[in-house]
Amino acid sequence: MKFPDSFLCVTSSDGRPVAVQIPLEAWRRIESLARPVLSGFYSEAADSAKIPAASPEPVEAFEELLRYWDFRYPYSPAVRCPVCNTSAEDWRLGDPRPFRLVNANIGGLLVFRCVACHTTVRQKHFRDHVAFEHTTRV
To answer: What backbone torsions phi and psi does residue 121 show, to the nearest 5 degrees?
Structure first.
């Protein structure tokens, strides 16, 4: 779709359009028509984006990882969300807990979901270091 030069089309890293920024004067002209449409769109999007009922955490897989832990550094239960800056010294503690364990395996992968912003936070444990990654729900 071709936009006027005064419209800014924001694209994802793979080139897909994800948003359009329009000049304030254009918004003022269409606001009364656009608001009802957008409010319906956002309420539907919020309903479809809700996290399904929490499935049980893979505690047995996590405990197995700890039993066979042979990395060159001690296990740290600290988790931090780089998106909303939620953090916990120990993800297993707190009420309510700020993170849920969603995946764990003996190979060193731990995956958490931030309860505040639903970001997926991954800890990839290697022999000498741990790599941190995250994915944010859009």
So the answer is: -115, 120
Q: Which residues contact 135 (CB under 8 A, 6 or more apart)?
A: 119, 120, 122
Q: Is 66 in a helix, a strand, or coil?
A: helix
Across the strands, what pairs with 130?
Answer: 125
Q: How far apart are CA 64 and CA 43, in angstroms?
A: 42
* CA neighbor of 129 nearest in space, from 93, 76, 81, 79: 76
Q: How far apart are CA 20 and CA 134, in angstroms?
A: 25
Q: What is the pLDDT of residue 14?
A: 76
Mind listing the pLDDT tens digit for each residue in 119-138? 999 999 999 999 999 998 75
- The whole model's pTM is what? 0.61
> Is-contact 111 99, C-beta < 8 A?
no
Neighbours of 101 (CB within 10 A): 19
For the stretch 15-19, contacts whose Cβ atoms lie closer than 8 Å and that sit 24 or more positions apart, written own/partner, are 18/138
**Distance of alpha carbon 88 from alpha carbon 101, whole angstroms:** 13
